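Lab notebook page, bench 4
Experiment: in silico fold of construct C2
Operator: M.H.
Input chain length: 97 residues
Purpose: comparison with the prior construct
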Amino acid sequence: MQGFEFMLYGVPAVLVVMGIMELLKAVWLDADGKPVVRDRRAVVAAVVVAIVVSFCAKFADLWPAFAEWLWVTFAGLFTGLSACGLFSLVKRREPPN
C-alpha cells in the first residue's frame, strides 16, 4: 500500500504545522504570560492550521501566481523560525537556582 506524502517545497507539511504552532505558542500569550494555545485549544489550533496549510497547497496547484506568493511567505516563515531556533540555542542561559 502506498503511503500519503504531503510536502511543501520539500518540507514535510507536519513540520510546517509544528513550526506554525510553536510560533503561535510563543507569540500569543495571555495576561499571565502563558500561551493561549495550550491543552485542548492546541489540538483544535493544530487541526485548523493543518487545514489552512492544505488549502494553501491546493490553491498553489490551481493558481501559479498564488504559488509564487506562497513560496515567498513560507520561505520567510521557515527562515524566521530557523533564526529563532538558532538564537535560542546560542543565547546565554543561567543555571536554575
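Observations: The radius of gyration is 16 Å. The chain has one domain: 7-90.
Next step: discuss at group meeting.
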